[in-house]
């Protein structure tokens, strides 16, 4: 259920803009521009979903953030086996 609220919050500005454009008189936007915009939004969302799935951690591992080592050097972040 929280995901539904987040999705609605992301889509709300687009829906409100579409409603405003529908109800206000003014120059008509060409249909090709609307379809290109819609295709761009769909490609962007698909890319975000793909990226989210491609950088997920392996099962049984935990994320360890970057930290300072005993000699003062920065140790990089990464995934380590769950203790």
Description of the molecule:
With 83 residues, the protein is of the alpha+beta class. The chain has one domain. Helix content is 55%, strand content 14%. It has two helices and four strands. The chain has helices spanning 2-23, 31-54, and strands at 61-64, 67-68, 74-75, 78-81. The protein is elongated, with a radius of gyration of 22 Å. The mean pLDDT is 90.
Short description:
This protein is of the alpha+beta class. The protein contains 2 helices and 4 strands; from the N terminus they run ααββββ.
Give the strand line-up of the largest sheet. Answer: 1-4
Largest sheet: 2 strands, antiparallel
Number of helices: 2
What proportion strand? 5-15%
Amino- and carboxy-terminal Cα gap? 32 Å
Structural class: alpha+beta
What is the secondary structure topology, with strand pairs?
Elements: H1 2-23, H2 31-54, E1 61-64, E2 67-68, E3 74-75, E4 78-81
Antiparallel strand pairs: 1-4, 2-3
Features:
two-stranded antiparallel sheet, 55% helix, membrane, transmembrane, transmembrane helix
């Amino acid at each position: 259920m929280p995901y539904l609220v987040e999705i609605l919050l992301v889509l709300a500005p687009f829906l409100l803009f579409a409603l405003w454009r529908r109800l206000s008189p003014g120059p008509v936007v060409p249909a090709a521009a609307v379809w290109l915009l819609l295709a761009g939004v769909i490609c962007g969302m698909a890319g975000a979903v793909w990226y989210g799935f491609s950088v997920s951690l392996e099962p049984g591992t935990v994320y360890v953030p970057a930290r300072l080592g005993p000699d003062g050097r920065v140790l990089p972040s990464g995934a380590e086996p769950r203790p």
